[in-house]
Amino acid sequence: MKVRAALLREVPGKWEVNEVELDPPREGEVLVRIVANGLCHSDDHFATGDIPVGHLPLCGGHEASGVVEEVGPGVRTLKPGDHVVTAFVPGCGRCRWCAGGQQNLCDNGALMLEGHQLDGSYRMHLDGEPVAQAGLVSGFAEYSVMPEYSCVPIGADMPLELASLLGCAVPTGWGSAVNAAAVRPGDVIVVMGAGGIGIAAVQGAAHAGAARVVVVEPVTSKHDLCLDLGATDVFTSVDEATELVRSLTNGQGADAAIICVGVLTSADVGAAFVRSGRPGRWSSLPQPPATRPRSTWRRSS
Ligand SMILES: [Zn+2]
Ligand SMILES: [Zn+2]
Question: Could you tell me the fold of the domain covering 2-167?
């Protein structure tokens, strides 16, 4: 079938809409009608060259929601009509990592930046040439074909335009606070940058019981939203926030600093390091849970 898709054809370059040929789903794959796709900063990193692209042209978008239209042979967990959110790290549910509760480390994730599908071939084509798919997903298209493992089914009553954010920004930010920074009740937390990821980190830190969630966000129009969603204090620069953080912690510095800025620089990391205390935790990328999930095996009596 022919579908419209936003492609990156050179780096640095721009996302431009083209008509591409989309193959039907093969073994273990599904055809999804894309309803919504969040614009992640990673898509901009691809366009600027900050994140290397393995193959061009590339169809972007890894934060999508949609409706399954068709399933390929062997698909067991999805059927046409299912509403789904995409996962840019496919989770097979069966490998050593998935079975241990760390789907973010699924063996299949090794292929997330390659551009082709799990069997090494391509489903999108432009003038007969293969088109890479971002995270095996490519939400920048009217329809896309992806692994069954890349889809997480959701309830049909969940608004799809909101659910798409669960594909990247929300779990990335929330997980940075709850898992990587391991926020504890009473903590003083600094969140640098309140974009899609940062604002989810704010909510994660508040949910985990932080006493103060101090946000540094230079765009003042975002400040009220930060306060609505869990921030206790908002500043436009790190330097402005420093005095408060030191006064709250007897000069020790924050318990954790979570860096969610658009383009990470050594200055940002240095600032976070200085503002967090001696045992402080800081994170700029989501990490696996700090502790292994507790076993759910129970002896049957
Ligand atoms: Zn993303
Ligand atoms: Zn797996």
Answer: Quinone Oxidoreductase; Chain A, domain 1 (3.90.180)
